[in-house]
């Protein structure tokens, strides 16, 4: 993993740019934005994907495999953009430094695009992508045309980023490496401060400190959860003059009220029905935060609540991929115990009398080592059976003894879990357990979604 070097100055003008890892979910959106701005783009990735094919169709020069010769693809190249997911020995990264090019972390490239526009930054250990999508979709419904860069594809747009005509820019701001602090944010939305990424911060206190700095720097308003314990800790320390809370708590400025199967948002004396197409209480809470942001931007509360209902979801957030013999197969990006609990609770709210079979891929060795028991507890509580794959290491080297078996061992009843590192066997196990009316849900932010065709095949009737 490469730590971002934010001391590198951002050029006043970028004439041509190369992206290392151009197919990634976040960086592909950045590349699209540079193409929209008329700036020549090249890039490389380890493997071809839909993102690389889409970017090539838009005019980017895309290479499969990393090679320093790829830097010669675009005439006048002056900037190379990287993410923390690449290795320090990456030949393009090293060659860019040797050639004296501007070597920018992706957060700096995003800051270049934002320039001086009015910025909404959405931060939090989870809920960022959905909340960003809700804000963007609602703004469009209200007649605005913002630019945005999200961590996932917004269903209405079919893309994760887009250049709009308005002065407004909405981003998913990444707290994982501290880079969310570099933006000049107007309105900061904090979905939660659930400790994660302690490999970067080192302590829970440092994690909280970063969110306090992020919030107090917002020019106009801070919108923050009233329910999350970490968010409450941060809110208590803020010196900002305009802090707006949202959630289920009695004193929340924008409060979610659920009664008799219906949901409402309440703000002072105003009350508006909340009707969403995406299930789960966590999504209704995200909607409350999005509405609070829209009100901070100057929109009417009731109209904003109505507009949020236009949100159709994001790719890899409780996304239905198919159905075989009465079993529906979903995928969700959840990779933290709190996210897994929320995703499975949402599934429980719509599965009816059916059961939930979780197909869980632990993400990174450090998180698995730290949170294996938490994952086990959540999976056992919210799923009827769990099939656990091996760890998706992402940017990390393996840690001896850290495998998916750690999660399996955390279950109190071994009958509720199967540790199956072989993907074909795992797909077959999930299909074997599932009955008519059940859901199978893949969980993780690695490549677990790629097992879905195998699961659907395994569900085929004999």
Number of strands: 21
Shape: globular
Judged by helices, strands and strand pairing, the structural class is alpha/beta
- Give the strand content: 15-25%
Give me the number of helical elements: 15
Compute the gyration radius: what is it? 22 Å
Helix content: 25-40%
Q: What's the overall average pLDDT, rounded?
A: 91
What does this structure look like?
- 34% of the residues lie in helices and 22% in strands.
- It is built from 15 helices and 21 strands.
- A 10-stranded mixed sheet has the order 8-7-9-6-10-11-12-13-14-15, with helices on both faces. It has a 6-stranded mixed sheet with strand order 16-17-21-18-19-20, with helices on both faces.
- The model has no long low-confidence stretch (mean pLDDT 91).
Keywords:
462 residues; alpha/beta; 34% helix; 22% strand; peptidoglycan synthesis; cytoplasm; cell shape; cell wall biogenesis/degradation; UDP-N-AcMur_Ala_ligase_MurC
Reconstruct the topology from this structure.
Blueprint: E1 17-20, H1 25-36, E2 41-45, H2 50-57, E3 61-64, E4 79-82, H3 91-98, E5 102-105, H4 106-114, E6 118-123, H5 128-141, E7 147-154, E8 159-162, E9 168-172, E10 187-190, H6 198-201, H7 204-216, E11 221-225, H8 229-237, E12 243-247, E13 254-259, E14 262-267, E15 270-273, H9 281-296, H10 301-308, E16 319-324, E17 327-332, H11 337-351, E18 356-360, H12 365-382, E19 385-388, H13 405-409, E20 417-419, H14 423-433, E21 439-443, H15 452-458
Parallel strand pairs: 1-2, 1-4, 2-3, 4-5, 6-9, 6-10, 7-9, 10-11, 11-12, 12-13, 17-21, 18-19, 18-21, 19-20
Antiparallel strand pairs: 7-8, 13-14, 14-15, 16-17
Helix pairs in contact: 1-4, 5-9, 5-10, 7-8, 9-10, 11-12, 14-15
């Amino acid at each position: 993993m490469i730590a971002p070097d934010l001391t590198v100055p951002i050029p006043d003008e970028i004439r041509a740019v190369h992206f290392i890892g151009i197919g990634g979910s976040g960086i592909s959106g950045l590349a699209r934005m540079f193409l929209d701005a008329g700036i020549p783009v090249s890039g490389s990735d380890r493997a071809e994907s839909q993102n690389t094919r889409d970017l090539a169709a838009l005019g980017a020069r895309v290479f499969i495999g990393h090679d320093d010769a790829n830097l010669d693809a675009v005439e006048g190249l002056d900037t190379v953009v990287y993410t923390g997911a690449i290795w320090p020995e990456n030949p393009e990264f090293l060659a860019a430094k040797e050639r004296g090019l501007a070597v920018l972390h992706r957060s700096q490239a995003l800051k270049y695009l934002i320039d001086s526009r009015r910025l909404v930054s959405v931060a939090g250990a989870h809920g960022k992508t959905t909340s960003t999508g809700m804000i963007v979709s609602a703004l469009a419904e209200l007649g605005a045309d913002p630019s945005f860069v999200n961590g996932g594809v917004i269903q209405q747009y079919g893309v994760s980023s887009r250049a709009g005509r308005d002065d407004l820019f909405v981003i998913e701001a990444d707290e994982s490496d501290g880079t969310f602090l570099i933006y000049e944010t107007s309105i900061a939305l904090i979905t939660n401060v659930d400790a994660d990424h302690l490999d970067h911060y080192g302590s829970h206190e440092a994690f909280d400190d970063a969110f306090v700095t992020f919030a107090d720097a917002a020019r106009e308003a801070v919108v923050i959860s009233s329910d999350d314990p970490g968010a409450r800790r941060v809110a208590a320390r803020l010196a900002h003059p305009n802090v707006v809370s949202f959630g289920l708590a009695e004193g929340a400025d924008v409060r979610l009220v659920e009664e008799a199967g219906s949901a409402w948002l309440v703000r002072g004396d105003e009350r508006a029905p909340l009707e969403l197409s995406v299930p789960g209480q966590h999504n209704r809470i995200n909607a409350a935060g999005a509405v609070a942001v829209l009100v901070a931007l100057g929109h009417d509360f009731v109209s904003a609540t109505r507009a949020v209902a236009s949100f159709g979801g994001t790719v890899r957030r409780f996304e239905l991929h198919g159905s075989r013999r009465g079993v529906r197969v979903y995928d969700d990006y959840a990779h933290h115990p709190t996210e897994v609990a929320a995703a499975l609770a949402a599934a429980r709210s719509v599965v009816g009398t059916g059961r939930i079979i979780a197909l869980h891929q632990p993400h990174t060795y450090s998180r698995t080592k730290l949170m294996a028991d938490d994952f086990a507890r959540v999976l056992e509580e919210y799923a009827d059976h769990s099939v656990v794959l091996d760890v998706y290491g992402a940017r990390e080297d393996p840690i001896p003894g850290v495998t998916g078996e750690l999660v399996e061992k955390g279950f109190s009843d071994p009958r509720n879990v199967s540790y199956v590192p072989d993907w074909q066997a795992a797909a077959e196990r999930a299909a074997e357990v599932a009955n008519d009316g059940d859901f199978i849900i893949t969980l993780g932010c690695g490549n677990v979604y790629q097992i879905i065709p195998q699961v659907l095949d395994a569900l085929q009737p004999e």
